[in-house]
Fold this protein.
Amino acid sequence: MTTIIILLCIGLFAGMLSGFVGVGGGIIMVPALVYFLSMSQLQAQGTSLAVLLLPVGVLAVYNYHKQGLVDVQAAIIIALTFLVGGFIGSKISISIGEESVKKIFGAILLLVAIKMILFK
């Protein structure tokens, strides 16, 4: 039962942040699954991707689209290339080992955070 409550909290928090600032998948779900449910880094990444496989953001996108805040052409191009990139990235991630992936993931989060905090 505790696991279900943790999963519900992760989903709600990730969904709220996704709708609010456009993040949630990797930035929220992956660390939460690793630290709160003791999943491996790769298992957390696979689970996060499985969540995103379904149309979880459709209502948030609907609200943004109603306000004219969605570039549909850009979204389609990114989605198609994301599909290819996701396949390639997953193959690399699985082949280099969990500890390396965890360090790379943390470094990317740190670099993005520093850039967003210190620069325009």
About this structure: The mean pLDDT is 87. Helices lie at 2-21, 25-37, 41-53, 58-66, 72-96, 98-118. The two ends are 44 Å apart (CA to CA).
